[in-house]
Amino acid sequence: QQGMEVRQGAQGWGGSGRVALLAVLLCLCCRAAAERVRYSIPEELGRGSLVGPLARDLGLSPGELPARNLRIVAGDEKQYFSLEEDNRNLRVNDRIDRESICGSVSPCVLNLEAVVENPFDIFHVSVTIQDINDNAPQFDRELVTIEIIESTPPGTRFPLGNGRDPDIGVNSLQNYELTPNPFFSLLVRESPDGTKHAELVLEKMLDREKQKHHHLILTAVDGGDPVRSGTAQVKINVTDANDNPPVFTKEIYKVRLMENLPEGSLAFQVKATDNDQGTNAEITYSFSDIAKSVRQLFTLDPRTGDVKVTGLLDYEERKYYEMSVEGKDGGGLTAHAKVHIDIIDVNDHAPTLSLLPILNPIPEDSIPSTVVAVINVRDKDSGENGEVSCKTDGNLPFRLETSTENTYKLIIASALDRENVSAYNITITATDRGRPALWSSTELVLEVSDVNDNAPVFEEAAYSAYVAENNAAGALVLRVQARDADADANGRVSYWLAGGSAGAAGAAPLVSVEARSGALYAQRSLDYEQCREFAVEVRAQDGGSPARSSTATVRVFVLDRNDNAPRVLWPAAGPGEAPGAASAPAPFEVVPRSAEAGYLVAKVVAVDADAGRNAWLSYELVQATEPALFRVGLHSGEVRTARAVSERDAAKQRLVAVVKDHGQPALSATATLHVVLAESLQE
Asked: How far is CA 215 from the centre of its chain?
């Protein structure tokens, strides 16, 4: 997509017209902003200096800034920039020295990523650091000594060494100046890479006998405003003639060195020859033009011309070195050659990772493709050695997705379930393409937060409870329990009766449930004879929002107690008598005197409101005028003659039978029966 470029100047750049034009350009650029934002600032700005209105250039209004959570990620770069507390403007966080950061590389660009949320997006931000004229040219040697044979012809040139200015562009070294002298002039040459070299040109023949020494001042000037300069003294010693100068085998030695070359290793060799004889052919080698920092990395054997490595070469710090060597014979004649050294990268840096968590903890109902973290990967090596790929270990519901060249997004790949896995320990490994490959890894712990996605589940779908009648009000009937796999409030279960408490319409409720424990309590004493069983629906509900619930059926069976005595239905009690008391004289049964043994006199009929054994009735004759004359059936209640009626038996017989149940303890009632022995009713 089309990027946008915003150039921000320091205070004091240009007039108000340029500022107005810059504001118009900023507005136009902001409308077209897509994935990339560019700024340009001068080096050496103070801490807190404005780089640019980053939030506005990303199209973020002040109202939406808190929700979008704008942040910047700089990887393993030094934190040169920071956001204001309100996240609107990008400002300088630390001193920016272009020369120490980029050296001679131009343009000097610092890269970072801007991350926003809701929705998630990543923007690439680049800041170009512009050079200012903060360095004056300097010479490696403050005193340059040149020996020239008096027979040297005019037009001969002698290198004077290079001035060095770490600034770039117009602020770098632009020219050399030499104090006027009738014997010498200055020639400035420019190499293909733009470096300017000063050479001393002999204009007239020298005469050692007239003047043995000449003193000049060489000045290097840059093109900054104001101009900065540096000087070196040039001392020329005039010597006697030596007609054959040394000659190097090459004008330029081009060397390629691996950056991991051990200290003390032979890097290369320079070689020069001289057609003279004796001491005039003995050549001594030395560096004639070399930076102090480079001199610490290489040594030159003055006898053999062997150049050895004496320091640590690092491709990531410097990729190219240039120096000049001098060969001088015993007569003082010299020759010069240039050496160009290219450093070859080796895979000596493992990738580095920096993590920016976006969503942690993660709600378990987060949809796939949700971004949970941003990973920034850096490798100081170059080429394939600096190409990095990332992966996650294990079969996890997350995957890495490339966002930009150095940035990955960790996104949700499949549904999460906190009840199965509540946290993930993710190892992210970055591997480069070097041979052998180097790698590094980091761990990210992601927690899964609970959402209310589970309803309570009862231990049983249906419960049965047994309660003996005549219980005390408030007695425990049953305790139900439901479990919820969710956490905290989502898993906190409370109970109540679905549709209210159980009980007949208009009547007091039979049971209630305690909300926290799930315990069911009887609200009043239960009576088996009125209600033998009933069912209630208990609802378990969690504390989530919205809440989830489930129900279970509780069937309560009332157990009978022996709380009802048998009730005699026949013979009925006489007027004014309570049930169970002796009967009145009427009614009475008539038994003929001719009755034989087994004659059915009457049947005692009784009932018991209880159930089971409590309602099993047995009959017994406990009182009779003639005890041997009558008997009663144990289970039938039938009263029969035990023998034949005789003339001696009294005409009026009174029988008392007891009816007893089988409860513990047993309850009973009595029935009184009047019998008349006669042949006829009239009798």
From this structure: 71
What backbone torsions phi and psi does residue 679 show, to the nearest 5 degrees?
A: -80, -30
The string of DSSP codes covering 45-100 is PPTT-EEE-HHHHTT--GGGHHHHT-EEE-TTS---EEE-TTS--EEE-S---HHH
Distances (CA, A) of 633 to 197, 304, 619: 146, 145, 7
Position of tokens 């549904």? 415
Query: What is the distance between the alpha carbons of residues 552 and 459, in angstroms, rounded to a whole number?
Result: 9
Cα(272)–Cα(282) distance, rounded to whole angstroms?
A: 10
Dist CA 501 CA 538 (whole Å) = 9
Distance separating alpha carbons of residues 69 and 52, to the nearest angstrom: 18
CB burial of residue 558 (10 Å; 0-12, 13-18, 19+): buried
446: its two tokens:
């992601």
Helix (H, G, I), strand (E, B) or coil at 363: strand
Q: Bridge partners of 620? A: 658
The whole-angstrom separation of Cα 188 and Cα 160 is 10
Q: Domains (ranges, CATH) in the chain?
A: 37-130 (2.60.40.60), 138-239 (2.60.40.60), 247-344 (2.60.40.60), 352-449 (2.60.40.60), 457-559 (2.60.40.60), 567-575+584-678 (2.60.40.60)
Query: What integer pLDDT is reported at residue 564 of this predicted model?
Result: 85
CA torsion sign for 387, 392, 395, 396 is negative
Q: Over 500-560, what HEC string results?
A: CCCCCCCCCCCEEECCCCCEEEECCCCCCCCCCEEEEEEEEEECCCCCCEEEEEEEEEEEC
**What's residue 25's pLDDT?**
35
Single out the residue of 505, 544, 652, 662 nearest to residue 593, CA to CA.
Answer: 652
In this structure, which amino acid lies at residue 412? I
**Residues whose CB falls within 8 Å of the CB of residue 25, separated by 6 or more in sequence, listed in order:** 6, 7
Cβ atoms of 250 and 159 closer than 8 Å: no
Neighbours of 264 (CB within 10 A): 9
* Residue 322: alpha-carbon gap to chain centroid: 49
- Tokens representing 259? 């950056």
**pTM over the 0.70 mark:** no
What is the rounded CA–CA span in Å between residue 639 and residue 645? Answer: 14
pLDDT at residue number 100: 85
**Cβ neighbours for 317, distance < 8 A, ≥ 6 positions apart:** none
Using alpha carbons only, give the angle 20, 81, 134 rounded to the nearest 5 degrees: 75
Q: What distance in Å separates the CA atoms of residue 376 and residue 359, rounded to the nearest whole number?
A: 16
Rounded Cα distance between 31 and 36, Å, is 12
Give the pair of three-digit tokens for residue 447.
């927690």
Q: Which of 380, 412, 376 is nearest to 396 (CA)?
A: 412
d(CA 285, CA 277): 17
Low-confidence spans in the chain with pLDDT less than 70 = 1-35, 75-78, 240-241, 499-508, 573-587, 681, 683
Contacts of 225 (CB under 8 A, 6+ apart): 133
The pLDDT, as a whole number, for residue 78 is: 67
Burial of 143 from C-beta contacts in 10 A (0-12 / 13-18 / 19+): exposed
